[in-house]
Structure formats: structure tokens, C-alpha cells
UniProtKB/TrEMBL annotation:
Residues 129-311 form the JmjC domain. It comes from Rhizopus azygosporus. It comes from the Eukaryota. This is JmjC domain-containing protein 7.
């Protein structure tokens, strides 16, 4: 017991040391950086940055009005993440089974025109509707729009020595919130329309996140009422249960040690979100918020990835008692869920 206490004290010291050195500083580039400047200032220290003027040359920057999008892809069938509370892929309490699950959204196929009708308020909906498919959604479902953006962020591709693994198209409104999580990607996130607010925490604050393992579930419409209900599945996912918008410090006392960095990314700005940073994302904007993001595979050869797995095994595996995590090899798991 006292060894565990000692380990917790040492982990808090580690968090504080990182915070003392780095604070909540975010670099702002007034113009796109050179690859070398970007590597030195942002990638190497693994610190977020805002880059202005990074995609002023894209036709999408001013051209993606709802009218234009209707004319280009209005009749295409797209995948929309539908949830009753705006939180897709989030730890959610189910009053029916009195249990918390990692709940994934109901993935509804509809025409892009039908989606826009909901976002514009022409079709009423009790639910939050979010185009957030990921894993290369731009080429998968929006290929007609690819010519309006660049295939990569040139100075980032040059700095990292690779092309993006996936380019994703995001379209939602202020009802939809992406819950706190991390990804094994260097992320260039371009806000094309509206505003996105990111609440960020560095990988060094893993201790504060109270990550645990949850049974998976998915929202499904009830056959009679059409209302979305939680349907439990067999599998499990490690996830973060804390909502930084209203943290429950009684349940999650370690979160008191976290130092949130809140950044609003305005229309026309690009956020560099370094690999393995925890992030929760909110959005606001008239007639919907649109973003394109570029996921570049992270560098697995430096200390960051194994360190994150050490934290997961130590905190979630040993301290939280999910000992099955101790035998997992994250990199070779095939389906990585962070
Ligand atoms: O925009 C969002 O809602 C989420 C973005 C995100 O999680 C990501 O780019 O990794």
C-alpha cells in the first residue's frame, strides 16, 4: 500500500516538473513555418501550435458554402454519427443497466442534402448529428471535394518525411463534442468554417486522466419509438471518463493535478496537435462547422510511444486493476483505440 502511495507521489512530481518547465505556452506562427522551424519549435518538443495563413490558397477556404457543397455532393450518401447527447465515442452512464459503457454513435447513412437540412434547422432532430467518420473520410466519402484542398500540408510532410496516413472531413454543430482521448498521430487540423475549441493536456499528464477499461456499447434506434438506446457489446476499450468541462473531482481526484490548455482555433487557422496529446473538442459557428485534418503516423522510434504504454500499464493496469492490459502489445494490436 505504501509503495503505491510512493509511486503516486513520484508521478505527481513528474507531472509538476513537466508543467514547471513548459507551462501552458502555445506557439503562434503568423505565417506557415519552414520545415526546419516547425521541427525545432513544435515537433521535436512535442508542443501544440497555431499556424495562420496555412491554407489561404485552398479553394475550400472561402468556397465551401452550404450551397456549393449541396451542388457538389448533395446527392451523395454519407455516414453521420448520431447521438442523443452529442458525445460519440465517450464513457456514458446507461440508466437502464445502471452501468457505464464506452458508447459509440449510431452510424446513419443519409444524403449530404439531408444532413445539411438538419444542420440548417429545416429538418428538426432531437439528436446531435456529426460527420466525423475519420480513417481517410475525405477520399472515402467526399472525393468530389478533394480538389478544393491540398493532399498534405507541404511543410509538415517535408518536416516529417512522409505523406499523411489519412485526411478527414469533419462537419458538425455546437451540439457535438468529441470526448477526451489521444491519437498516435501528428495532427494538422485546419478549421475551414466556424470555430473549434480544443482542451488539451500533454502526454505527461496521463496520471491525471483516470483512464480505465469500459465495456463497449453502441447507440441504436428503438424499433418502436426511434429513440436512441445503448446496446452493450462484447468487447472493451480503455478510455478517459473525465469531462474537462465539468470534472467530477470526487470521482477523479487525480484530475486536479492536470493543467488544461484551452485553445480556440478560428476559421482559417491550423492547429498542430502533437502525437499522444489528450484532447476534447467543441465547436461553434453559423450553418455548421467544417474542418479538414491530416493525420501523419507518429514516430514510434523515440521514447514517447513506449512511455505512454508504460503509463497505461502502470496506471490503468496496475493501479486501476485492469491487469489484462499488462499482457497487451499496443503496437501490434491491429486495431489501436486510444
Ligand atoms: O474535431 C473533432 O471533433 C475531433 C478531432 C479529433 O479528435 C482529431 O482530429 O483527432
Amino acid at each position: 500500500m505504501s509503495v503505491l502511495k510512493d509511486i503516486e507521489t513520484v508521478l505527481i512530481d513528474y507531472v509538476k516538473e513537466y508543467q514547471d518547465i513548459n507551462g501552458t505556452f502555445i506557439h503562434i506562427y503568423d505565417n506557415p513555418p519552414t520545415p526546419l522551424e516547425f521541427l525545432r519549435t513544435s515537433v521535436h518538443p512535442n508542443r501544440p501550435a497555431i499556424i495562420k495563413g496555412a491554407f489561404d490558397h485552398w479553394p475550400a477556404r472561402h468556397g465551401w458554402t452550404n450551397e456549393y457543397l449541396r451542388s457538389k455532393i448533395g446527392k451523395s450518401v454519407v455516414t453521420v454519427a448520431v447521438t442523443p447527447n452529442g458525445y460519440a465515442d465517450a464513457v456514458t452512464y446507461d440508466p437502464l443497466t445502471k452501468k457505464e459503457y464506452f458508447v459509440m454513435p449510431y452510424e446513419q447513412k443519409m444524403t449530404f442534402n439531408s444532413f445539411l437540412d438538419i444542420i440548417e434547422g429545416r429538418t428538426p432532430s432531437d439528436n446531435a448529428n456529426y460527420i466525423s467518420l475519420q480513417n481517410g473520410s475525405l477520399s472515402l466519402e467526399y472525393s468530389a471535394l478533394e480538389e478544393d484542398v491540398d493532399p498534405g500540408i507541404a511543410w509538415c510532410s517535408e518536416a516529417l518525411g512522409k505523406q499523411p496516413d489519412a485526411v478527414n472531413f469533419w462537419f458538425g454543430d455546437d451540439k457535438s463534442i468529441t470526448s477526451l482521448h489521444k491519437d498516435p498521430y501528428e495532427n494538422c487540423y485546419a478549421v475551414v468554417r466556424g470555430q473549434k475549441t480544443f482542451i488539451l493536456f500533454p502526454p505527461a499528464e496521463h496520471y491525471c486522466m483516470h483512464e480505465s477499461v469500459y465495456q463497449n456499447a453502441v447507440y441504436e434506434p428503438n424499433e418502436n419509438t426511434g429513440k436512441l438506446e445503448i446496446k452493450p457489446l462484447e468487447s472493451t476499450t480503455p478510455w478517459i471518463p473525465v469531462n474537462p468541462l465539468c470534472p467530477d473531482f470526487n470521482r477523479f481526484p487525480r484530475f486536479r493535478n492536470a493543467q488544461p490548455i484551452k485553445i480556440t482555433v478560428n476559421e482559417g487557422e491550423l492547429l498542430y496537435l502533437p502525437a499522444l496529446w489528450f484532447h476534447q473538442v467543441m465547436q461553434s459557428g453559423e450553418q455548421g462547422v467544417i474542418a479538414i485534418n491530416y493525420w501523419y503516423d507518429m514516430d514510434y522510434s523515440n521514447i514517447l510511444f513506449p512511455t505512454t504504454n508504460l503509463f497505461r500499464k502502470l496506471l490503468t493496469g496496475v493501479i486501476e486493476g485492469h491487469r489484462d492490459l499488462l499482457n497487451q502489445d499496443e503496437k501490434n494490436n491491429g486495431e489501436l483505440k486510444f
